[in-house]
Amino acid sequence: MRAIAIAGAGLAGLTAAQELRRLGYDGEISVVGAERHRPYRRPPLSKEYLLDRDTDLNLAGTEQLDVTWLLGQAATGLDLTGRRLHRGTLPTVTFDGLIIATGVRARTLPGTGDLRGVITLRGLDDARALHAALATRPRTVVAGAGFLGSEVAATLRALDLPVTLVESAPVPLLRPLGEPVGTIIADLHRAHGVDLRLGRRVIAAAGAGHVEAVRLDDGTVLSADLLVVALGAEPHIEWLRGCRLRLDGGVVVDSHGLAAPQVAAAGDVARRPSALLGGDLIRVEHYSNAIEQGTHAARALLGIADRFDPVPTFWCHLYGHRLQAVGFTGAGHHPKLVASEPDGRFLAEYHRNGRVVGAATVGFLRRLPAYRRLITNEYA
Amino acid sequence: MMRVRVDLTLCQTHAQCVFAAPEVFALDDDDELVYEATPGDALRPAVEQAVRLCPVQAIFLDGD
């Protein structure tokens, strides 16, 4: 293999490139990225970066990496037979091996696109715009109380800004963590002064050029200077339509990480079978997965990859509380609180077919490694 | 010999290292990070993975 293209210049793509070099691959590597920035640390964008624009976002080793950066234009098409990536009107990129790591795109709120003061947070430029907007001390509505919306709301409260957090589900973080944990998170938001509107959706924003009011589906109108849209994300796969890869809620890969011969996928965009979940296809949007799967994709292209089936881990920091989780913690996995303290500390277990498949906690972090071992051993 | 150093002023206890290399990194009774500074070389791949996974890049690996 003499030329490898990586579509996507995020953490998964970067990690794949680093692993290729670490393994001694000395051919060409071209990294195609939609943003004009080289890879950077994304987790601070909803937290520290909004408090301090000087927050260091550098990913170690990016500067020294021997790759060709093709930034500012996403891959727009793939010719699998001709082994060619299209980039709009720019020259194509030819390859022997390809890693697809195009990540996800934030869902937007239809009908709000032209209004200033509506920010959909995904990339660095969005975070810069949000940071600038916060300087005017706006009254803010956050649409969506998932990880991102919850973290943004907590950060705004740290700045002592008024926040209304609107979530269509009965509790925040319902889908990723289930109802019992979501209830605790709801209490946490309220205790920190967030005006939490559950079971409600934002349906429109209005104003003369700039947002002045946000309307909910029950007719409530909230006065606001800023609307932050945090309604989750969709895998960035439209550009792959019609090119014979299996697309099903992501780029589907086999247990070795391959979507086709010499074509791997990694990170938020990749959907893989999980043995622990009975072979179900899963897509994991967590930081550690981007690194583990990026590393694995490089090995898959070089033909030295094992089966890829790690137990996921992730975290979310809210109001100084550190929520951490291992395994599969979705609402569908029978969440059960096994510890819950008045100060907000808790430990939750998640089960499938009578086996533990996940655990989440605030305050009982040192219990998690044992859970991870348990889950890993049950896998075998 | 491999030397591990963690900048504890950067560490936010995401515990990714504890999952990646439990023989080297652990949590004490207060959920703060403790670690073995001179683990055996057999643990190098696990420590390298911990370095990669640390979201605040607080783990450093010196020497060979």
Task: Explain the overall architecture.
The complex is a heterodimer of chains A (380) and B (64). Chain A has three domains: 3-41 and 58-105 and 234-301, FAD/NAD(P)-binding domain, CATH 3.50.50; 108-231, 3-Layer(bba) Sandwich (FAD/NAD(P)-binding domain); 320-378, Enolase-like, domain 1 (2-Layer Sandwich), CATH 3.30.390. Chain A is 22% helix and 31% strand. Chain A contains eight helices and 27 strands. In chain A, strand 5 and strand 6 (90-94) form a beta hairpin. In chain A, 46% of the residues are buried. The mean pLDDT of chain A is 96. Chain B is an alpha+beta fold. Helix content of chain B is 23%, strand content 22%. Chain B is built from two helices and four strands; from the N terminus they run E-H-E-E-H-E. In chain B, the strands form two sheets. Chain B has a two-stranded antiparallel sheet. In chain B, a hairpin with a 5-residue loop joins strand 2 (25-27) and strand 3. Chain B is globular, with a radius of gyration of 11 Å. The model of chain B has no long low-confidence stretch (mean pLDDT 93). At the A-B interface, helix 7, strand 23, strand 24 and helix 8 of A face helix 1 of B. Chain A: Residues 314-378 form the Reductase C-terminal domain. Chain A: Its cofactor is FAD. Chain A: It comes from Nonomuraea antimicrobica.
Amino-to-carboxy terminus distance of chain B: 5 Å
Say what the CATH topology of the largest domain in chain A is. FAD/NAD(P)-binding domain
Radius of gyration of chain A: 21 Å
SSE succession of chain B:
EHEEHE
What percent of residues of chain B adopt helix (DSSP H or I)?
10-25%
The number of E-state strands of chain B comes to 4
Beta-strand portion of chain B reads 15-25%
**Rg calc of chain B:** 11 Å
Helix vs. strand class of chain B:
alpha+beta
